[in-house]
Amino acid sequence: MREIIKAYFKEIDQSIEKLSNRFEGNLTSIPSWILCYRKIRVGYIDGSNFVLISITPSDDLMEDEVIEEVISTNEELRNFHSPWVIDNIRINNLPQSDFYQAFGDMKMIEKNNINALPVLQDKALRINVTKDLIPVFFSLEEARQNAIDFWNNGQNEFSEQNSFVDNLQNIFDRFKNIIKRKSFVERRIHRYINEYYMYLLPSHIDKYFEHPLYLNGEKRVADFILKRENSLPSMLIELESPNVKIFKKNGEPTAEANHAKNQISEWVRFIEQNSKNAEGEFEFLHGPKERLVIMGRGMDYKEQMMNSRYTDTLMWTYDFLIIEAKEKWNKFILEQCKVLGIEHPNLIQ
Questions:
Q1: Is the per-residue pLDDT at 183 higher than 90?
Q2: Cα 19 vs. chain centroid, distance in angstroms?
Q3: Among 117, 97, 95, which residue's Cα sits nearest to residue 107?
Q4: Cβ-based neighbours of 108, under 8 Å, separated by 6 or more
């Protein structure tokens, strides 16, 4: 067991080293017990299948140190994870199979004072587990997958209670639900997309929400303007209601879709005829511009949506937007899995 645990943490460190290449400044977002040397205590409960493990970062070590011990009294059991004491726990009533619990980087802050420094800051990782699950939760494959979750959740300020994929899945599932609800009028959907633009909108390096454009005393407001990477054309996005149709039965755009296209044409005219709209940080608006209309739901006209790339304006339903976003993030996850050698990637469904 000693070697299994040491190999697991070594694999997490090496995986984070690979994922952070060229992004070293983001290493502050990972748990404290990664990319350090650790004092690892493994407490075997006498006569039980239950194991307690504590992993504490140590500045005094030059390699991970594993100490194994036997816990034979209820007091030793309760105090193993000191300063955190688990009440009402007894050796004779511990789970004997299929149990795993972990908590780490815990803080204790003065009540009713959010600006106070922590009274207690514990950088250790603490685990309670039954022996039968140790080969599962401490496998090299699990270490690689956990490294992806720790890294990506940290970069995106996601909850560490879920995997990175689960957090993304929740964003997409919730979005798919709200576009079906009449109470979520167009404005509310716009705000949801703006909140999660990094995950829902096409790839970009900067975005501008409800950005004003001016020409001859008139004003237009672009729902979204995207600054693209690698010299790609900027993208202007018009969002319409998910409750209107984007195509007629014959596959032609509806009147509402044509109106949305015309709105983007207006934005382009304002930009082209008033150079002030493309000054300063908006210089990227010079030159070609991609146009995207998002409205309606469903995938009945997938072929028409795919073929819209050959016209002056992309035409997507909200469901198509979700599919495109999922594919983008699954590609990102697969690339990370390839770097780490993960054989069975966990992907967004």
A1: no
A2: 15
A3: 117
A4: 118, 119, 120, 121
What is the sign, positive or negative, of the torsion defined by CA atoms of 162, 167, 173, 175? positive
Six-digit token string for 233 = 């054309």
Question: What is the rounded distance in angstroms from the CA atom of residue 118 to the CA atom of residue 107?
Answer: 6
Spell out a b/e string for 311-320, using b for 16 or more CB atoms within 10 Å of the CB, else e.
eebbbbbbbb
Please give the Cα distance from 140 to 9 (Å, whole number). 9
pLDDT (tens digit, 9 = 90+) per residue, 79-102?
A: 999 988 777 788 988 988 999 999
User: Quick check: 191 pLDDT over 70?
Assistant: yes
Nearest to 348 by CA among 203, 170, 202, 165: 165
CA angle 38, 41, 47 (to 5 degrees): 160
Greatest Cα pair distance in the chain = 84
The model's pLDDT over 112-156, given as tens digits with 9 standing for 90+, comes to: 776 766 767 899 999 999 999 999 999 999 999 999 999 999 999
Q: Which two tokens stand for residue 343?
A: 């054989």
Rounded Cα gap, residues 154 and 158, in angstroms = 6
| Mean pLDDT, the chain, integer | 94
What Å distances lie between residue 124 and 29, 43, 104, 340, CA to CA?
15, 15, 6, 25
Please report the domains of the chain, with CATH numbers, ordered by start residue. 2-158 (no CATH), 171-329 (3.40.1350)
Alpha-helical runs (H) found in 227-317:
255-273, 302-307
With CA atoms as reference, report the closest residue to 15 among 125, 154, 150, 135: 150
**Is pTM beyond 0.85 here?**
yes
Q: How far is CA 333 from CA 37, 251, 277, 280, 343, in A?
A: 28, 35, 37, 35, 12
